Here is the input.
Amino acid sequence: MLLRYVFGVGLGAVATFFLFLLMQALIKSDKSPFDESITGKIVDFVRVEEDIDIQVKRRKPTPPPPPDEPPPDLPKPQFDSSNVSQGVEIGAVDVQLDLNVGGTGGFSSDGEYLPIVKVAPVYPRRAQTRGIEGYVLLEFVVTKTGAVRNPVVIESKPPGIFDRAAIGAALKFKYKPKVVNGEPIDVAGVRNRITFELQDG
Here is the structure.
């Protein structure tokens, strides 16, 4: 017990001696541990911006694409017009007639219907590129105003290739209407054959 007491006192004395030396060293130092001021040199610099050459790119508008090749000259279809009931054949030449307006109905004399304007149909591009030829036989009504109504395909060769083009052209036909007793009337059953042929070369 005594030995432990002597050992504890001795160890305490040594620790006290070292603490005393540490305090002595801190007192002699110029630096205070409580001084929180920032030490060091402050470097002040100014960033100089270099002259930058700005290059402006002028965009040129892109040139338009070259135009597509114009379509080849379309062949002129041939018209074979006929009235089946009377057997009158009408050629492909457009007939221009001066209509005499008079009387109550606007027509001075009786007469059969006559074609005034016939529009050539547009040759279908698919048939043209494949070299297909053919014809379409239409039947329609010539009205009392000279217009075409209800065109119907009676026969076509080859089937379905030229039907739409023939009907579209027939709807643009103009006729001098048939006149009976001074009055224009509708004429049903008028047939017209449109032939589609490619021109040589």
Observations:
- The two ends are 137 Å apart (CA to CA).
